[in-house]
Structure formats: structure tokens, C-alpha cells
Amino acid sequence: MELGKSIEETTECFKFLSDEELKLLQDKKARITYLKGENVMKQGAFATHVLFVVDGLVRVYLQTTGTKQINLQLKKQGDFMAFSAVFGDEVYPYSAVALKDSIICMVDKEALKELLVSNPEFGLKITSRNYEIENRYLEIISNISYKQMRGKLASTLIYLSKFEAEGVNVFEHMSRQDIADFASITSESAIKFLKEFEKDNIIQLDGRQISILKMDSLKMISKNS
Fold first, then answer.
1. pLDDT of 2
2. Which residues of the chain are in CATH 2.60.120.10 domains?
3. In terms of Cα–Cα distance, which of 66, 69, 42 is closest to 181?
4. Contact yes or no for 202/138 (Cβ under 8 A)
5. How many other CB atoms are found less than 10 A from the CB of residue 36?
6. E strands along the chain, which residues?
7. Is the distance from CB of 174 to CB of 73 less than 8 angstroms?
């Protein structure tokens, strides 16, 4: 699968590039396959590239003290990681691991920056695609600072269910610890409240799979707990 074809198929903003501009990216990329569980990028490592998910599912997390992690986002086909490297970040601000076998393109940050400057329409589209990251970080801060454990878990399920709605079955690739790290609670608490949500007919559990039955109830818990 070539980078140009993959980009055109998965990311609308790259359709604003000419054949010559796409060739520039072709000449400045490396395509790597990561197996499930492999590290895709490491927090604190030199940020030489912007990463683009051609296929697969990647968990992005912040390594805090010791072994504690805060899961930040999931990245699916067509998403970027470490986009801040284009704007001068010298090291990767977070780590990422493949939740399933994934194909990642490493795009030279200087080549991408050149296209952002020379093609304003492309620059606007690609920047607007990444604005949701800021909203996601604000949501994480709100969860950690103000919400109780039930509210944190409800917010996490709402976030993850968005991927399910887009046809990405995320829950089958995530452990209860992964979900707990998204909610910033312990795995024991996550399991406890998942069972409570199931008892209240808000969700349905089937192994790793979680089906949302009452989204309005989850949103109410997220807002008020």
C-alpha cells in the first residue's frame, strides 16, 4: 500500500495536494508494520517524524510516575500522532502502543511543514483535523480534577463508544486496565462500576465487549458524578 494512495483513501485533507506534493511525501516517508503490543513511539525520544496511521489502532498514553499511565487517545486509520513536531517539539510528548497489528507511516516533519506553508488550503484542513486533540485534553483535565470515579468511567465509555459508532470495535482490543487508565481509576474500580452499570441496564458486558444500552444515562452520570 503506497503512502499517496493510503492518504487519499483515509484522509480528506491530503486530497488538496498535487501529484508533485504527494511525491514529496512519498520521498520523505518510511512505512512500518507494528505488531499488536509493540511500541510505536516513546515519550521523550527525539521527534524526527510525524506519524500517520495507515491502518490499525493505536493507544496514546502519558507515562507519569513509576508505572502509572494516563491514556490520552486512541488513534485509528487516517489519524496523525506527534503533529506538534512540525511546530518545533524536539521530543515526543507521549508514548504509543499498537492495540492490533498496525501500519504506520513516518513522515519527515520538515517535508510536512513545507507543504503546510506552501499550500494554505491543505494547512487549514490538516490543522482543523487536529483541533479535537485540544478538546480531548480539556476533557481529561476535567475528569481528573472534578469528577468522581463513576463519572470518570462514564466519560471514558462515551469517548470510546464514538469509535464503535464509526465501525472500529475498540473494546475487543482493550483490557479492563486500559479502560481504567483512560478513566484515571484503578482496574478494580473500573470492573466494579462496569458491573454496576450493567446491573442498571446502562451497558451490556460480553467478555471484553461493552455495548452501550442507555447513552443518555451515561451522559447524565458523566455530567453529575
1. 43
2. 3-130
3. 69
4. no
5. 13
6. 29-34, 39-41, 49-55, 57-63, 69-76, 80-81, 95-98, 102-108, 203-206, 209-212
7. no
Cell of 126: 490538516
- Using alpha carbons, list the distances in angstroms from residue 142 to 43, 151, 162, 197, 202: 23, 10, 19, 22, 23
Tell whether domain 136-224 is in CATH 1.10.10.10. Answer: yes
- β-bridge pairing 49-55 and 102-108: antiparallel
Buried/exposed code over 162-196 (b: 16+ C-beta within 10 A; e: otherwise): eebeeeeebbebbeeebbbbbbbbeeeebeebbee
Q: Of 88-97, 159-168, 192-201, 202-211, where does mean pLDDT reach its minimum? A: 159-168
In angstroms, the CA 211 to CA 26 distance is: 40
Cell of residue 32, nine digits: 512500518
Higher pLDDT, 78 or 128: 78
The grid coordinates listed for 204 are 451490556
CATH number for region 3-130? 2.60.120.10
